[in-house]
Amino acid sequence: MSLALLPPIFSTLFRLFAYVFLQIIPTRLAIPVLPLLHLGYLSALYLSLSTAPEPHDPDAKTSQPKDKDPSPLAAVLLGLKTRDRLPNVLNVLINTGLLLASLDLALNPLLFPEQDVTFTRVGAVYPDAAKIMLRYPLVNETEHEVQILYREVTQSVASWQDGPFITLSKDNDWVNATRLGNLWPDTKYEYIFSSADGILLPYPRAPIHFQTFPDPRLNSGSHFKFIVSSCITPNFPYKGPLARNNIQGFELLSQSLTPPPAPIASVLAAETNETDSAASNETEIVTSAPVTSIFPKFMLFLGDFIYADVPVYFGDDEDAYLRLYRRTYASASYRKIYEHLPMLHAYDDHEIINNYGGSGLDPSPYPTAANAFKLYNGAVNYDSPALGDHYFNFTYGDVAFFVMDTRRYRSDPETVNNTATFKFIVSSVPFTSLWGHDAVKDSWGGYQVEKTQILQDLHSVPNVFILSGDRHEFAAIEFTGESEGSYPVQEISTSPLNMFYIPFVRTLKLQSEEVVQRTRTEVTLTEDGPQVETFDEEIPREKVLEYIARGTVKWSSIEVDTTNKTRPLLRLETWIDGKVAYQAETIGSPVKFASKALTYVPSSIKQLLEKIGFQSKQWF
After folding, report:
1. Rounded to an integer, what distance in angstroms lies between the CA atom of residue 217 and that of residue 564?
2. Cα torsion 431, 433, 435, 438: sign
3. Is 56 exposed, middle or buried (0-12, 13-18, 19+ CB in 10 A)?
4. Contacts of 96 (CB under 8 A, 6+ apart)
5. pLDDT tens digits for range 166-203
6. Which contiguous run of DSSP H or E holds residue 328?
7. Which positions fall inside the PhoD-like phosphatase metallophosphatase domain (predicted)?
8. SS3 of the chain: helix, strand, coil, percent, to 5
């Protein structure tokens, strides 16, 4: 091989690998490969330039024609060596710039640890309380106390009420959480902070708002919306060093949300402006159904909030995990969401390490990773039934959510029954077995015994939906039960919110090989009267309703409306790269509830009750 061919070969391979790393998938393979290819290019260029030309005999009657140099454009595009110095210099600069960009993407959390980030957000919300998280570091201090001041948002400006104190310490990375209680159901509140001696703190510049959940005992039905997605990495695809904390998924999500009603009691800061089927178990799905413009009540984030091992794993080190969380919370893109929307989190493997499965034994690096998750995300989730665990459940009116821990354990969720109209089973990994590749093991497809047991239970309950993520694709799946009278179960899997997807490679089968038997009846009108024919048919146990692989930004907006008890509705709207890509409406089965005695408490009565000593907790 001619020595002159080595520089363009190394340059082309380097640029191709750098493009894949920066724009398609930030693979860990790039960390050793890119520096080696760049070094190979520089070495080959040096050797080819330093090679002496063949001697030329001036007495010769004929001379060989000189090789023509490639055009400057071709030389720069292909990394070709020329006798002209400028294209060679440009090639070196371009390749070195790509290497520096790759290092910036890989090492950014190490170079910018975001020690000074300050933030607050709301997590779990109850009819009578809310969990609030705060990070507020102080220079030259090891610990300090901050007090929450809160008030109800009313027609007139109310006085701030004293809330609980939050102790912040350097040992806990200056982050802590508390529960603000004694609140009224379905009521808007706002809060700020003061120091221990009563001085208002400069952050937040405007009060943070939230609304308590409705009292489920009212039995008046629910109408609300929530967002679901998973998987984020800041500044990917790579947009340059100035966009190091940009998360395009959150930017597009914030633009899509209908602004909440302007608060009456507060002036926001400038940047804030930034057929009755009671006798049927069938589920009716109507595509292209519009989703109404109501502001979401919360967001479910189903894991891979950080990527501890992509593109670089910095080891089982506490600060290595903590600085990844600080990096995400320092993002102005994410701030547009968490300062306006309660966030609830499950974790997945990349909060720990790729394809982690603990089997309840907690091998390394789980303890370190779990502590970081708890500090920054888990502490303001709903309380787990078991101390120290991260699975939990909650309700919004007559709608129930069961959030599983599919990394530390992979076991049956709590009993799901007829006490709620819609039931959402939340799993960080897909429940379907239709995905191939590593999902054969890194999903419920690798736990067929447990999966079959759970499905048997779920098929006996109406209106069950499974929410999942992880696969960096969107799919809506329907599961069919063994018996004729069983209820269908649907899965909505949505990811990533801001991460790669693999073009041209598809690993999702459109239906399962396993089938169930069904009997179909057809009535035909003839001259002799109606004739009834019965057919036996096979239906896939699992089948795809919709599949969208493309897009580095995906989220699903789910609207639930149970105000009409005989026709509960679920409307799904899936967004891909900032645009609506799929819509569907599901008409659920009615669910009967026991009558409730509790009625709505008007605002005037609430104020009177508070004056004579009754607090909201006495009503629960």
Report:
1. 16
2. positive
3. exposed
4. 38
5. 999 999 999 999 999 999 999 999 999 999 999 999 99
6. helix 318-329
7. 296-415, 417-507
8. 25, 25, 45
Cα 598 versus chain centre, distance: 37
Are the C-beta atoms of residues 176 and 374 closer than 8 Å to each other?
A: no
210-242 core/surface letters (b: 16 or more CB in 10 A; e: else): bbbbbbbbbbbbbbbbbbbbbbbbbbbbbeeee
Q: Which tokens sit at 363?
A: 């091998």
Contact 17, 33 (CB under 8 A): yes
Q: For every residue of 89-142, which 3-state class applies, written as one string?
A: HHHHHHHHHHHHHHHHHHHHHHHCCCCCCCEEEEEEECCCCEEEEEECCCCCCC
DSSP structural state of residue 371: H
pTM across the whole model:
0.87
The helix/strand count (H/E) of the chain reads as 10, 23
- Cα four-point dihedral sign 84, 85, 88, 90: negative
**Whole-angstrom distance between the N-terminal and C-terminal Cα of the chain?**
82
**Which residue type occupies 97?**
G
What mean pLDDT do residues 262-286 have?
A: 40
The residue behind tokens 């609300």 is 224
Q: Distance (Å, rounded) from C-alpha 428 to C-alpha 447?
A: 14
